[in-house]
Amino acid sequence: MLDTFERLILKVLQRNGRASTHELSEAVGLSPSPCWRRMKRLEEDGYILRYAAILDSKKLGLHAFAHVQVSLVDHSEATIRAFEAFIERDQHVLECASITGDFDFILKIAAKDPEALEQFIMQQILRLGVVRTTTTNFILRQMKVSGGLPIDV
Q: What Rg, from alpha-carbon coordinates, does the chain have?
């Protein structure tokens, strides 16, 4: 179980992964040494998986985002392995989740424009040989983008 200080540390780090030990200790109400030890323990215990920068997609030329639902041709181990290997290596796939319902997976895809997104689906996903069908929903506007998890303090 996490105590209140550890939960506060996680909350602050989700908003600012570059917070210094001093900034972190002030934000949570601990002196720097115990704060640093708790943060290190949270890393070692696997609560903190990694630190990452959040980039501006428009400045990087990425203007098309979509959720793509994917149905596989079958559920054999080889099919699933081939699909998962593709998902792991392709940088356009931002997220992938196994889902219930008519489809097997839902992907979040980033591309420079709608044409590039169509090309990615047609020439990459559908040519894998393991995908039966896809349905694409373009994201018109993202009103909230957050990697932060809810943490009750």
A: 20
pTM (two decimals): 0.86
CATH 3.30.70.920 is the classification of domain 64-138: yes
Residues 51-86: pLDDT tens digits? 998 899 999 999 999 999 999 999 999 999 999 999
The CATH number given to 4-44 is 1.10.10.10
Q: CA 111 to CA 18: how far, in whole Å?
A: 28
- The DSSP letter of residue 121 is I
Instruction: Give the pair of three-digit tokens for residue 149.
Output: 């998890």
- To 10 degrees, what angle do helices 32-44 and 21-28 make? 100
Q: Where in the chain is the domain with CATH 1.10.10.10?
A: 4-44
Nearest to 22 by CA among 12, 34, 32, 30: 32
